[in-house]
Amino acid sequence: MRTFATEKSATNGTPTERHEPRSGGTDGALDSPALDQPTSAPRHQFGVIVEIGGRRMPFMRWSFIRLLLSMRRLMRVWQVGDGREERLADYVLQNARQGDLDDVIRVVDEYCYQRSFMINVGDEKGAILDEAVRRARPSQLLELGTYCGYSALRMCRAMPDRAQLVSIEFNPANAVIARRIWEHAGISDRVALLVGTLGDGSRTIVTLEAEHGFAAGSLDFVFIDHDKNVYVSDLELILGRGWLHPGSVVVADNVKFPGAPEYRAYLEKRQGRSWRTVEHDAHLEYQSLLKDLVLESEYLGGPA
User: Is residue 251 part of a domain?
Assistant: First the structure.
């Protein structure tokens, strides 16, 4: 059950919807350095991790602590540095049924609950992304920030059969991992991966237009989940190319944690004029203590 409330926009008083998170969900197992290994897992529901007051506690997980200690490196190269990303691909290939997209998603979640905390969108916010894709029924999708390919798996499952997704990843090592997982899931013909950024001197933009059919009004859906400092500038690059059309949808993760306050302010300022934004309250991936915010924004056209 979801409840709805409204809050006033900071500029024009237009209501911005807020969606409260759904309660419940499956808890993962308490991990340790010894558990961060590519071992096979039985096909059953995730174990119960340490809880306080009914909330999953990320601070009780060694892999979460290790991630925090590596945060500076993570924000620079988008890997923690302990090999957890490579081990995820090994774990998926060992434990998920080949060609079974649902099972690959399940096994990624299992790894993230039981083995190593990962910074993909996760199952709770992933469900928000799923519904946004289903509502939009897009033909052409763009993802900014592939990481290990989890959100692309979810979008491929939710998007129409003939839709095509292009995902952009900064780190070539992450691109290799994502491609391994996608190949195992059987979706390699539905998603393309470009190594680069939108701000890399037009190289990636030229490739999108020359090789992937990006053109005026062609882009139906964008998922933003990369460097929080460039959420606004990359959205403006997309707008500047004219790829969006009225009705295009942009979903952004981690708006509250680690946080993208400039992006949220940018959309609040334009609420009801060029954008209509819904704010989904949620939690940081794979735990229920730290809160997060997912923004789902419909482009209305007109000036940015």
Answer: yes
**Catalytic: 228?**
yes
Candidate list 253, 268, 281, 292, residue with the active-site label: 253
pTM of the model: 0.80
Judged by phi (left if over 0) then psi (alpha if -120 to 50, else beta), residue 301 lies in: left
Which pLDDT tens digit goes with each residue over 77-114?
Answer: 665 667 789 999 999 999 999 999 999 999 999 999 98
CATH code for the domain of 146: 3.40.50.150
How many domains are there within the chain?
1
Does some domain include residue 89? no
Is 285 one of the annotated active-site residues of the chain? yes
Interval 137-187: pLDDT, tens: 999 999 999 999 999 999 999 999 999 999 999 999 999 999 999 999 999
* Parent domain of 263: 120-299
Catalytic residue among 95, 227, 228, 279: 228
225 is catalytic: yes
219-224 and 244-252 as β-strands: parallel, antiparallel, unpaired? parallel
